[in-house]
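Loading example: each entry is read as two labelled lines plus one structure line.
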Amino acid sequence: MKFSLTWLKDHLETIAGLTEIVDALNRIGHEVEAVEDPSERLAGFRVAQVLTAAPHPDADKLQVLTVDTGEGDPLQVVCGAPNARAGMKGVLGLPGATVPANGMVLRKSAIRGVESNGMMCSVRELELGDEHSGIIELPADAPVGTSFAEYHGTSPVIEVAITPNRPDCMGVYGIARDLAAAGLGTLKLIAIPSFEAHDPCPIEIRTDDPEGCPAFYGRVIRGVTNGASPEWLKQRLASAGQRPISAIVDITNYLMLGWGRPAHAYDTAKLSGAVVARRATDGEEVLALNEKTYTLDASMTVIADDSGVHDIAGIMGGEHSGVSEDTTDVLLEIAYFNPERIGVTGRKLGLSSDARTRFERGVDPGFLDDGLDLLTALIVQICGGEPSEAVRAGAAPSAPKVVPFDPALTMRLGGIDVPQAEQKRILESLGFAVGADWQVICPPRRHDIEGAADLVEEVVRIVGLDHVASKPLPRVDGVARPTATPQQQIERKLRRTAAARGFNEAVTWSFLPVPDAGHFSDGAKLWLLENPISDDMRAMRLSLLPGLIAAARRNADRGADGSRLFEIGRRYFRGDGGASDERTTLGMVLAGEKTTRGWATGKAVVFDAYDAKAEALALLEAAGAPVGNLQIMGEAGPQFHPGQSATLRLGPKTVLARFGALHPATLKAFDIDGPVMAVEIFLDAIPPRRGNAFARPAYAPPALQSVKRDFAFLVPADLPAGDLLRAVRGSDKTNIADARVFDVFAGQGVPEGQKSLAIEVTLQPGEASYKDADLKAISDAIVRAAAKLGAELRG
Amino acid sequence: MTDLDQQKLAALAAISAATTLNAIEAERVAALGKKGWVSLALKTLGQMAPDERQQVAPAIQAIRAEVSDALTARKDALEAEVLGARLASENLDLTLPAPEAPRGSVHPVSQVMDELAEIFADLGFSVATGPEIEDDWHNFTALNMAETHPARAMHDTFYFPDRDEAGRQMLLRTHTSPVQIRAMVEQGAPLRIIAPGRVYRSDSDATHTPMFHQIEGLVIDRGIHLGHLKWTLETFLKAFFERDDIVLRLRPSYFPFTEPSVEVDVGFEVINGRRVLGGDGNAPGHGWMELLGSGMVNRRVIAMAGLDPDEWQGFAWGLGVDRLAMLKYGMDDLRAFFDGDVRWLGHYGFAPLDVPTLSAGVGAKETGTRA
């Protein structure tokens, strides 16, 4: 909220300057978001009197004035305003001043041959209003020579962010009270101009909804003149950013902005019968002051008469019964509404207002009578009229909250030692009553005080948080203990392994377009947001690949030759009991060129499924998965090329990873050129590591050198090489240390339907070197084992 | 001149004229081979009388050595010639580029989270996690934001149409604070945790993205007060920015889950148009920047998490990880964090071996090798 320094000083007797006040506001918890000083914009403009006015010798519409500036000789000024005349007082801009409306810097100049030493200004030129038919005319008593900023009462405007727990400070008076408590001056008492009430209130006021509207106070004022507000009132509202409308509306706004007290005025000519706070009926409609029609329901409190709803209680008045310039009789309403109900109604209607902000946070239940009197007095003072006696229907909650307080808590919780007497002084200056036994009675406006900790906050914020001394957290003896969980360690290793292997870590959105997420859902039920920012961010991902593929496509669109991207993040499944089941996963995409065109071959190389396999295995190894025991199986999923993808499993059911080339349909769905390889590592499926010893097993290199033997087999074309290798390795586990494929060939010399697999077998002798017979026996065993798979040793 | 001398001269001439290794070998056999003339001459020594032998032998030995040396020298020279010719044919143009190894990178958010984990591990904090799809009890109610609390509306929450079995509204967590509740419930007290992770708000402009990262901190113990909070934040920020002149300004504020609540500003200086943290925000050329929210954990929250608020108290804070990364490493557009642009990732990402350690300083310095 915004207010001028002048306004603040209406309520705070202080010698503090602007900077001190701003610092104090920040210190006590009212964050200053901006300070604007209009007097800076009006520098160089002063109150001046026109002494003589004569026609310009060379121009019909211009006059040559002599102007008294209050010092030195009068200045000659050329002026085109029709109302310029001898004797009048106005505002003169001196050379060097900048005209606020257009940024023009005034200088001494000649206008049609006549010297001019400044400019007499209009309202619009000084950005004080729209008026531009002539220059400003000031009253005869305006002191010539004073700065216009000072005369006009322009005052710095302070904008503060009031936290939602402090509705008592959503009025200038409350802020003044806080500043006074902080030692910035003295809070002035609220001065209520006197007025005399005549006759009982002619309109019946009731509350038929004591839960939603426990208190409804009001009175009628007859015979008002609802003209423009006086200057002082307009200035205060303007500093708060409010446009003056008419005196009565302005005064109700002034009450709200000055004391945090929303009120409403009805034109009694538009009312019929009793004015009642009641529940709306379902479907009932009201045209509100913002010219929108709202459809209400039975949970909402309204103010209505015999003819219908005139006010959405505590939120916005109705268009029909609002006051206008023709209004002569008004009914004033000051009510207390249930804060929670106001919030619910406001959210249901999607309707915000200054009144709602205050009511839903809680207005001062002790400020109904005074508020009504203040409102009445101001209207009578400004608009005239005869007020009736007040009517009070119901009562605002008045049981005082009592908090037992231990002043030692300020040290225990706030970490600052404040003498008891000072704590008492602070609390009392904020309106708390402190008993001898430290039973603290809270002012009813302080809805935020729930317990002793809140009182500590009051004391600490007024003393100043900067007086809280830093105190080291106690720490354990010696070097800090490791804290990362096994899961966190795996994530860190994977991340840096993938980066070390040349991949860029990306962070992509957790939510996806529904079709993208659906493409990878494999029938799982998606989490779909009810209120996404856009449809492209509606479905929680079940795979990290859609986001990475989209990123790879964007990179390709930007001209990148290739993308190596990975991400470690969660996939969002449905878990037990309606909760989520979030599984940490590594996703990886290899798109575009693996190596760009180079001088060695002249050809770019694209990624293939073996590249994806290499990454999957390297990452699983880094994650501590038992890569030696993994089975390579199919069923990577319909998003993958059926012949160029696989899963890595521990046992037939536990899938640790999938990898391979993406299916052309996937590429099409994501509008990306292929081939694109992908890997997903399912971190939740990796079995935890057993043992946590540091020592490695003893190092025992074999005593004898190993021997290598090559075998070439003809096998059925569809036999997986891995099967043959497993068979070969299994044929003599004592002697065969390793077997690997070094050639795959089909074509000339190999019968149709077959292929040749060449395998290098490493044999490791134990106690004694191999003799010919040993080697023959091993070879025979290898060939026999291979034969079981239909493999035939080539001649 | 003896015959031997003449033979020697002829042999030396032939050796120096030899142009192939084969020719050298032929000369060696002719002179030093079993039936070579030097060998034959040496054999004659056996039949001589000792006196004569003593006279003749040195001369023959000298001739043998001279021929042998000539053979070796010529052979070495010829071999060097051959090698020279071969090497000359093996020239590589080393101005041609070497095979490129792709350079990977770690995302700034991950790097900064690792840095934070490292710093807080030293202070005895472990890393806790919780679900991102939360229920409204953990995200709001347990944090002292009842259903009608105005602060709920200020959170710009993403909701799911779903409710869990307990009837709780499912939503995307709007902050990492629900992890406070889960950690207290699961681990009890005393407790020191940080909880980094993704959070979500329905907000999108140049400085806000609907998904971003926060890190929550929580200390629950006996006798913990605001002074400890202040020290912890100062100590952590000094360690994170590796500057001793970090100055904090604490302002009273309001969060439903803390009481008292404290907003923390940090002093900065504008250098070359960039905000650089450090120094007193009130000093000339300096200012204050809002950095994080914190406070003493509201006793209602402690009770809601099943602990006795008369025994345990503590503090909590939350701040934006992306924002910390931007302040430290100089990125200026939050949206780029989530785009996966390989150029940006290469530019702002971190080398895999930039593992944050306390001994080397947790931050990764700019190396100046970026183009």
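Chain B has a mean pLDDT of 91.
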